[in-house]
Amino acid sequence: MKDLEILLKNSGALPSLPMVYHHIQRVVNDPDANMESIVEIIGEDPSLTVRLLRLANSSFYGFPQQINSLSESVRLIGLKQVRDLCFGTVLIPLFPKNKVDPHFLDHFWRHNIACGIAARSLAQFRNQKNIEQYFIMGLVHDIGKITIAMNLPDLFETILKEVIASGRAMDEVERQHLGYDHTEVGALILNEWKMPQKLIDIVRGHHNFKKIQSGPIELSVVHVANLLVHAMGIGSSGEDIPPPFEESAWTQLGLDVEILPKLCEEIDRQFLEVERIFIEP
Ligand SMILES: [Fe+2]
Ligand SMILES: [Fe+2]
């Protein structure tokens, strides 16, 4: 693990979060935070503004009325939720197409965006609060893979081929070749970015059966969401067959299997719109 830490820092390949996100985070963490400050910061970034407005007017929210201004979106969505969505929108451009196979990158983000939507929808079905944090958990869950791909492209290629040929779980093959897997790499990046400990723990634990059995509900949500989008065939994270499934994750959610058709319909519907909002330049 140390080797990777050194490699990432020395190669300068660990992307930094843009200043606009740091500004937003600082304002939201301020107990005297007000809506106007956030609107002002976001308003200075045209790309962020457009994406937030498009999200506010998409099936992601399904607000009955048209949202025409940034301040209206922030008021309706909420400060912390807007911060989380901003993190989502600044994240994807940090991994440029010229550094990773663009075909893999496209499928990778489709998988991760869909996982975010699935996690958020599962949380919504469970009446959880602040469902945007679930979107972010799904969106970043496999971020370690893209980091390995950017830093060790040849080895990553070998891992991908071996996963497809053997049908073995990707984290297992990664550990065999590298001594660590994408969950640890993802946790390392999020730690460098000083993201919340909970998010780091979810990313680190999303394939760990023991942690899922005894861990927080968010871990089960992301584990189920990941399997669900694999089963639905949205995008790809490098595997042909879904990774191993810990059934207690589904039991922990306490949801009826009868919700599944409606849930999948919801994920499909939102994915078509949300993918474009996040991925289009
Ligand atoms: Fe994963
Ligand atoms: Fe995944």
Task: Explain what this protein looks like in three dimensions.
The protein has 281 residues and is an all-alpha fold. The protein has a single domain, classed as Hypothetical protein af1432 (Orthogonal Bundle), CATH 1.10.3210.10. The protein is built from 17 helices and no strands. Helix 9 (143-151) packs across helix 12 (182-192) and helix 12 (182-192) runs antiparallel to helix 13 (197-205). It starts with a helix and ends with a helix. The mean pLDDT is 91.
What is this entry, summarized?
It is built from 17 helices and no strands. It has helices spanning 2-11, 19-29, 35-43, 46-56, 70-77, 79-91, 102-125, 132-140, 143-151, 153-166, 170-178, 182-192, 197-205, 209-214, 217-232, 247-253, 260-279.
Key structural traits:
Hypothetical protein af1432; 281 residues; binds fe (ii) ion; mainly alpha; globular
Broad CATH class: Mainly Alpha
Which strand-content bin applies to the residues? Answer: under 5%
Number of helices: 17
Distance between the terminal alpha carbons, to the nearest Å?
34 Å
Query: Would you report the number of β strands?
Result: 0
